[in-house]
Write a structure and sequence with these properties.
Length: 320
Amino acid sequence: MTFTQSLRRGFAALAGSLLLAAAAHAAAPQVKTQAPGYYRMMLGDFEVTALLDGVLDLQPKQLLTNTTPKEVGALLARSFQGDAVPTSVNAYLINTGTQLVLVDTGAAALFGPGLDQLHSNLKAAGYQPEQVDAVLITHMHGDHVGGLIQDGKIAFPNATVYAGQKDADFWLSAANLEKAPKEMKGFFLGAQTSLNPYVAAGKFKGLSSDDEIVPGVKAMATPGHTPGHTVYVVESKGQKLVLWGDLMHVAAVQFPKPSVTIAFDIDSKSAAMQRKRAYVDAAKGGYWVGSAHLPFPGLGHLRADGKAYVFVPVNYSPVR
C-alpha cells in the first residue's frame, strides 16, 4: 500500500468517526423543560421576585367582550398569536428587608394541569412558605388564591392573608354560593376552600380602604373585575411598582383597545374604567407595573400611543 493510499484511508476513517459522533449528538433526547420560574429585580431597597405558577390557554375570541371576534382575531394576529393564547399566571414576592410579602398565590390544583408551580418556584428562588409574613390577594378568583392551600393544609402558616372586604363578603358567602348559577359555583367553592381555613384560624384581614399593610406596601381598591378587586402599590427610595392583579388579561388586545372587557368581570363597565385609569396613571408616572397574566415575569412599563398603549417589558438583567 502506497503512502497516498494509507493517507486516504486514514482520512476516510476520521471522517466516518466524525459522522458517527455527529449522529450520536443529534440523537440526544430533547429536554423540553425551562429554568425555574422566577425573576428577580430591585426596587429601591426592596427585592421583588416574580414567581410563575404556570401557563394556561385562554380563548380570547370566546372570552373578550365589548368587541367582536373579528377585531380580536385581527389584534391577536398582529401579535403573531392564534385563537389559543398561552397565558402566564404570575405572583410577586416582595422582601422589604424586614417583611416578606407575597402578592397572589397562583391556582395550585384548582385549574388543572400546567399550573401549581408557585411553591416549587418560591423554593427555587431561595425562600420557604414559612418565611412569608403577609399574603396579599388581589381578588378571590381561583388562579389567585389556590396556592393558599397545599395538600389540604394552610400553605403559609405564619402569614396573615389580606384581601378586599367586599371580595370576602361576596365570595365567602354560603348564601351567594347557594344561589349562584351552576357555571359560577366553582368560583365560590375555590375561594371558600382556599380562604376559609385562614378565616377560621384568625389569619384573615379584610381591607375596607386604601390601607398601608407594611411600610412601603399599600392597597388600592379597584372594584369592577370583582367587587373587592385590589391592586397593591410598592414604593422604596423613590421607585414605584403597582401590581395590577386582573386589571387586564390579554395584552395583544387590551393595550391597543383598553375598552375591551372579559366575561369574568362582575361589573365590566367598572372594570374598563379601572383599567383605563391605571393605564393613564402608569404611562404618565413612568413607574413599574406587574400583572398576573402578562407574559412572565409580567413586569415592565407602559407608554401611551395615541389612544392605545404599548407595554415595554423588563429587560433581563442581573440583580443590582
